[in-house]
C-alpha cells in the first residue's frame, strides 16, 4: 500500500514526519510525496500560530475535496482534538504529537475500513522511536537531529508545552549513532534541534549535557559542521560557550531567541529578565567571529510605544548578525490570551516593519565587511544558470542568507569550498570559488 505525506511546520515537525514514514517503511508500506499516486494521505500539521493552523487546515480540506482518506497528525489534533473533527467530519483519523508509533494501527484500521479513529494522549509524553530509521524527505548537505522534545518553560505566548509535554532528552550515544549514520549517507552538516537545545541532558544526566554531546559529535570522521539552534538565554553557560568556541566542527553561530528587551514585557512574557546586551557582548568576546541570531516578538499584549522604542534601540545598539521578527499571535490556552490591552493588528505590523527595516540596514553593513575576505561555505546546489548556491557557517538553512559563486570546476552538494567574496546585499553574498 502506498501512503502520501504533506508536512507543515518547523524542522522538529519534519523529523516527526520522517520518523512516521520510517515506521511505515519498516512495515512494508510504500512512501510518496505525490498525493496523486494514492488515496491515503497523512497531513502532518503545525499549530504554533494562527497562520500555520490555516495552512494546515487548507491542506486537509484540499485532500478531502480530492476524495482522499486523510489522517491528521501533529500539533493541530493535539490542540483542537474534538473541535477539529466536528469542523471537518470527513477526517478518517487523528494522531497526537506523541503517538507516532500509532500511525501503523491507524493505517491497518483504514485498510480494514474501520470507522474514525483518534489516538491523542491527554498528557503528552514524547518517546523517540530510537530503533526506527528516518525516511528523509529532504536529503542534502545538511540534516536535522532532534536531541530532545517538549519544554519545561511556560512562556506566556507559547502553546508548545501543552502540545508536547515536559522536556525529554535522548541519550548521547543514540544521537551520535544517528549522526554517524547520516554522515555515511553523505551529510556534511548536522543541525541540532529541540524546543530548547541548551537544556539538553538535564533530565537524563542531572546537568546540562550539550557541551559533552558537542564533544562527542566533534569526533565523527567526515562530518564538517555541527550547528546548534534554539538556545535559551539562561542556559548559555560558560561551559557551553567554551565548547562552541573551542570545538573546530561546531560552527561559530548562536541562535538564541530573546523575544524582547524591555523588563516589564519580558516579565509579562514569563521570560528571563536579564541584560541581553551584556550576554551578546560576552558571546562575541568569548567566541571570535561568532554570528548571533535572535527572534523577537512585537505587539505582545500591553506593549507600549515606549517599550517598543526600548526594543528598537536595543536592536540598534546590539547589531544582531541575523534576526527574525514576529507579530504576536493570540493563541487560546496560553497565559497571554487573556492579557489586556491587545495591540491592534495595524500597530503590530508597523512595529515589525520598522524593526525589519532597521535590521536590513544592519545586515547590509555586516555583509559588506565580508567583501574581499575568503569564507568557508557548504555547497547546497546550483541555480538554473549554473551559479553555485552555498551557505556560510554564519547562516542556517532556510532562515538565513545564501552565498552565490561562479566557478569552472565541478562541485557537489555537501562539499566545503573557499569563496572569495566580491559583492554583498542585505541578506546574500556573492563571490568566486578559489
Primary descriptors:
Rossmann fold; 6-stranded parallel β-sheet; 13 helices; 19 strands; 5-stranded mixed β-barrel; globular; OB fold (Dihydrolipoamide Acetyltransferase, E2P); pyruvate-formate lyase- activating enzyme; single chain; 434 residues
Could you report the average pLDDT, rounded to the nearest whole number?
A: 93
Structural class: alpha/beta
Sheet of most strands = 6 strands, parallel
CATH class of the largest domain: Alpha Beta
**Beta-strand percentage?**
15-25%
* CATH architecture annotation name of the largest domain: Alpha-Beta Horseshoe
Q: Within the largest sheet, what's the order of strands?
A: 2-1-3-4-5-6
Radius of gyration: 22 Å
Oligomer: single chain
| Record field, number of beta strands | 19
Number of helices: 13
Say which CATH homologous superfamily of the largest domain is assigned: tm_1862 like domain
Please give the alpha-carbon distance between the first and last residues.
Answer: 49 Å
Would you identify the regions where 5 or more consecutive residues have pLDDT less than 50?
A: none
CATH topology category name of the largest domain: pyruvate-formate lyase- activating enzyme
What general form does the structure show?
Answer: globular
Supply the number of structural domains: 3
Helical amount among residues, as a percent range? 25-40%
Amino acid at each position: 500500500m502506498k501512503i502520501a505525506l504533506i508536512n507543515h511546520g518547523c524542522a522538529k515537525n519534519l523529523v516527526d514526519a520522517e520518523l512516521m514514514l520510517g515506521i511505515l517503511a519498516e512495515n512494508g508500506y510504500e512512501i510518496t510525496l505525490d498525493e496523486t499516486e494514492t488515496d491515503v494521505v497523512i497531513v502532518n500539521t503545525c499549530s504554533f500560530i494562527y497562520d500555520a493552523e490555516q495552512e494546515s487546515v487548507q491542506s486537509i480540506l484540499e485532500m478531502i475535496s480530492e476524495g482522499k482518506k486523510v489522517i491528521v497528525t501533529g500539533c493541530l489534533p493535539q490542540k483542537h482534538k474534538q473541535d477539529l473533527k466536528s469542523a471537518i467530519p470527513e477526517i478518517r483519523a487523528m494522531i497526537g504529537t506523541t503517538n507516532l508509533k500509532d500511525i501503523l494501527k491507524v493505517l491497518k484500521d483504514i485498510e480494514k475500513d474501520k470507522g474514525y479513529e483518534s489516538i491523542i494522549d491527554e498528557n503528552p509524553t514524547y518517546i523517540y522511536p530510537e530503533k526506527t530509521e528516518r525516511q528523509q524527505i529532504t536529503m542534502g548537505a545538511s540534516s536535522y537531529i532532534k536531541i530532545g522534545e517538549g519544554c519545561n518553560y511556560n512562556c506566556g505566548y507559547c502553546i508548545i508545552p501543552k502540545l508536547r509535554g515536559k522536556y525529554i532528552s535522548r541519550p548521547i550515544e543514540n544521537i551520535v549513532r544517528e549522526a554517524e549514520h547520516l554522515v555515511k549517507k553523505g551529510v556534511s552538516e548536522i543541525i541540532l534541534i529541540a524546543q530548547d537545545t541548551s537544556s539538553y541532558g538535564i533530565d537524563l544526566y542531572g546537568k546540562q549535557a550539550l557541551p559533552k554531546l558537542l564533544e562527542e559529535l566533534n569526533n565523527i570522521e567526515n562530518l564538517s559542521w555541527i550547528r546548534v539552534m534554539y538556545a535559551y538565554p539562561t542556559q548559555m553557560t560558560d561551559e557551553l560557550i567554551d565548547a562552541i568556541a573551542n570545538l573546530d566542527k561546531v560552527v561559530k553561530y548562536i541562535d538564541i531567541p530573546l523575544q524582547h528587551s524591555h523588563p516589564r514585557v519580558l516579565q509579562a512574557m514569563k521570560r528571563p529578565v536579564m541584560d541581553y546586551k551584556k550576554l551578546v557582548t560576552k558571546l562575541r568576546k568569548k567566541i571570535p567571529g561568532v554570528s548571533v541570531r535572535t527572534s523577537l516578538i512585537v505587539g505582545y499584549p500591553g506593549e507600549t510605544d515606549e517599550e517598543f522604542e526600548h526594543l528598537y534601540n536595543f536592536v540598534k545598539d546590539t547589531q544582531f548578525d541575523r534576526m527574525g521578527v514576529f507579530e504576536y499571535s493570540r493563541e487560546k490556552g496560553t497565559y497571554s490570551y487573556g492579557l489586556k490591552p491587545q495591540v491592534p493588528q495595524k500597530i503590530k505590523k508597523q512595529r515589525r516593519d520598522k524593526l525589519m527595516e532597521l535590521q536590513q540596514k544592519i545586515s547590509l553593513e555586516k555583509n559588506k565587511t565580508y567583501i574581499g575576505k575568503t569564507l568557508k561555505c557548504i555547497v547546497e546546489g546550483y541555480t538554473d544558470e549554473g551559479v553555485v548556491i552555498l551557505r556560510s557557517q554564519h547562516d542556517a538553512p532556510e532562515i538565513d542568507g545564501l552565498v552565490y559563486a561562479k566557478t569552472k570546476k565541478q562541485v557537489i552538494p555537501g562539499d566545503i569550498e573557499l569563496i572569495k567574496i566580491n559583492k554583498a546585499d542585505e541578506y546574500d553574498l556573492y563571490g568566486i570559488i578559489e
